[in-house]
Amino acid sequence: MNKKGLFITFEGPDGSGKSTVLAAVYDMLKKNKHAFNVAITREPGGKNNVIAEEIRNILLNRIEYQISPRAEALLFAASRAQHVKDFILPNIEAGNLVLCDRYIHSSLVYQGYARKLGIDQIWSINAFGINHVLPDLTIVFMINPEQGLARIRHNQLREFNRLDQEALSLHQLVYEGYRKIIAENHNHTIIEVNAALPLVEVTTNVFNIILEKIKVHYGE
Q1: Most-buried pick from 54, 63, 128, 151 (CB within 10 A)?
Q2: Closest CA to 20 of 40, 5, 38, 36
Q3: Measured between alpha carbons, how far is 215 from 77 in angstroms, rounded to an integer?
């Protein structure tokens, strides 16, 4: 296959269910016969990426660290730069379909909008790191902060990290930030899904969105 791969990212507030849906969609795609491979990964960190995973551990698991907002933003960007170089870009160049749980829009929303560092400033440092590697499609799972946090509290299997412990006010800003990004998208590369619907329905909706994108991109 000479065609470059397809890069799709999953975004949304905490507790939106995007990670669960991504795993389900990945399994559904693997069961179908395609002329391309499907690669799955997530951020911060990345599949089989020691450097990016070490940064993830600092960002999410070292709760005792008092990380400044600016340092946090730079660490996310550094992890992403390594992730792009070692995993995302090689898979795209190989013609694979790459599904990624969070990417640059998370930094724009969490650090740029919610942490009030400025969306343009966060875009600048990330643009340098990713070197023009942008998603072909971003699916944003939207759910209000109260519902999302309630899901987190009731999901005993979900990783509970430093960002989950932030005050409700920050999660409300995250929700607003995603709303802003969706509203300002003018090139149709961002699609919103209602993550408050039953899981089966959300999964089906997302799977159909991706199948349509595959059809256009790969001609399947």
Answers
A1: 151
A2: 40
A3: 32
Question: CA separation (Å) from 111 to 29, 98, 161?
Answer: 32, 24, 16
At 200, the amino acid letter reads V
Lateral strand order in the sheet of 97-101: 38-42, 97-101, 6-11, 137-142, 190-194
Burial class, 39, CB count within 10 angstroms (exposed 0-12 / middle 13-18 / buried 19+): buried
Q: CA-to-CA distance for 13 and 31, rounded, in angstroms?
A: 29
Cα(19)–Cα(206) distance, integer angstroms? 12
Span 93-143, pLDDT tens digits: 999 999 999 999 999 999 999 999 999 999 999 999 999 999 999 999 999
Give the whole-angstrom CA distance, residue 63 versus residue 139.
Answer: 29
